[in-house]
Amino acid sequence: MGREVVELNADGKKKRFKIIKSNNSRKLYIPFYLMLIILLGTIFYIRVNNKPLNYLALVMVIAFSVIIILGTEIHRLYNTYKITENSLIHIMGYFTKQSKRMDFNAISDFYIVQNLWQRIFSYGNIEVRLYSGDTTISVKNINNPSQFIDIIEQRIRSMGNQPYK
Amino acid sequence: MEARTYELDKKKPKSRLVLTLVFIFFGITGFLVYTSFFNPELGESLTGKVIKNNQQKTTVEDAADIYAVLEAPSKLELKPIATKLSIRIEKQTNLYVGNQKIEIPNKASIILDDFDGEIKIESRTIRELKGKSSKILVDGLPITQKSGSDNNINLESGPFEFLQITDFFISSLSYTTSGKININQDKIIITLDKEEFRIKDFKGNMDLTKNNLKLNGVIEKESVDKILGSIYKKQAEVSES
User: Quick one: angle between helices B14-33 and A55-76, nearest 10?
Assistant: First the structure.
């Protein structure tokens, strides 16, 4: 998982680490995918039962399917979360990008927020709190949030700095 | 001190978008189900039939009356929208009305009112007959589909004795044949002897038996000129040689 990066330390030694990149989970769009399955299933049932299939309805289904598939994929790309060697970066936007870098040293603790639906499909939001206490970062709709936290904790530990719990 | 959530984005009306998509989904599903299971005519009036009527003229402008008795073509493909289509079957075959299979006995007659579909005839046999009809009669008995109101019909391939299409339109018909053509009540009588018969925009009735094709209706005047022109040309070639 992630892209491997090689950096030089202050003492000139090579250091290898992976940049882990994550976007919104596709599980977030399950209700939309279900809509497509229902529409395509209805068309299949109509064809199997030799019923007349209206051309306009078929065109609408195709257009709706394309909009949903493209729309969800484009929406996914809006938020990107990156775990580098010593920071968590939240990048937002399509063409004009805004990013917020949060140093691991500044992170105090994490909260996982999952509703029932998110728990069933194993995705959710993470709230990252800072020692300063006045700001948090919301990592939204990420796949397997506990694994995401584990990776950050591992990085923090490797920096020799245990997060406060 | 209460934590302040860091938000890069401004709040968007996401729920409104989702709600719109859900409404669109239910609209499309409803339309799909309604036009397929309950009221196929609604869909046709919105799309299919409007387009078909535009493509297939229902009137012939600048027309001449035609009555022709010709040798039947070996192959004929038509997509008529006809008031009535009558067939007398030669051998036992099957007619499918929706999911329903109806056995058609020897020499039975089938009448399809308001037929809209496709007919392919080859070597004195109906190769394909499929389409829609508002009313189906087999030997005078009406047939209705068990599950639903649509009458999608499909006739299995088989030989026929007689086929009559009433009040329909064809944009063109062309084949080499022999026979007699009567234009504008005996004003012009053309006898063809293995010559090309080509007409454009015919509206009327057609009777097809194993040997003969009868056309009774109106054609574009231009077609008459073409028929005459091809005959004069042929005669000129014969006299020259």
Answer: 160
Fill in the amino acid letter for B199: I
Residue pair B63/B210 in contact (Cβ under 8 Å)? The answer is no
CB contact, 8 Å: B46 with chain A?
Answer: yes
Of A57, A127, A137, the CB nearest to B43: A57
For residue B31, the SS3 value is: helix
Which residues of chain A does B6 touch, with a Cβ-Cβ cutoff of 8 Å? 100, 135-138
> CB contact, 8 Å: A20 with chain B?
no
Nearest by CB to residue A39, choosing from B28, B148, B152, is: B28
Task: At A110, list the tokens.
Answer: 């994490």
Backbone region of residue B161 per phi and psi (left: phi > 0; alpha: psi in -120 to 50; beta: other values) = alpha
Tell whether A49 is within 8 A of chain B (Cβ). yes
pTM of the predicted model as reported, rounded to 2 decimal places: 0.49
- Per the DSSP assignment, residues forming a β-bridge with B81 are B116
CB A123 within 8 A of CB A141: yes
- Nearest residue to B74 (alpha-carbon basis) of B118, B121, B126: B121
The residue in chain B having the minimum alpha-carbon distance to the alpha carbon of residue A40 is B29
Residue-wise pLDDT for A98-113, tens only, equals 888 888 888 888 889 8
The 3-state DSSP class for residue B162 equals strand
